[in-house]
Design a protein that fits this description.
This protein is mainly β. It is built from no helices and three strands. A three-stranded antiparallel β-sheet has the order 1-2-3, with no helix packed on it.
């Protein structure tokens, strides 16, 4: 990477409850072998949805010890 490269990450409140990533903007200048390159990347995140999951644990559930190879 070369001088002038930068990374910017944005967050925004979703439904007034929690802050989540809303996007990123990346500008990269680098030199690969003998050729210089310049990249500008923009990413936007949106349409977050809330979901609910319910689980139940059986009465006969047992803890299994982790086996390491």
């Amino acid at each position: 990477m070369r001088k002038g490269s930068n990374f910017q990450f944005d967050q925004a409140p979703v439904n007034g409850e929690v802050w989540l990533p809303s996007g990123a903007e990346i500008t990269v200048q680098m030199r690969l072998l003998l050729k210089g390159t310049h990249e500008h990347i923009t990413q936007r995140d949106y349409d977050y949805k809330r979901f609910r999951v319910e689980t139940q644990q059986g009465k006969d559930a047992k803890v299994v010890a982790e086996q390491k190879p």
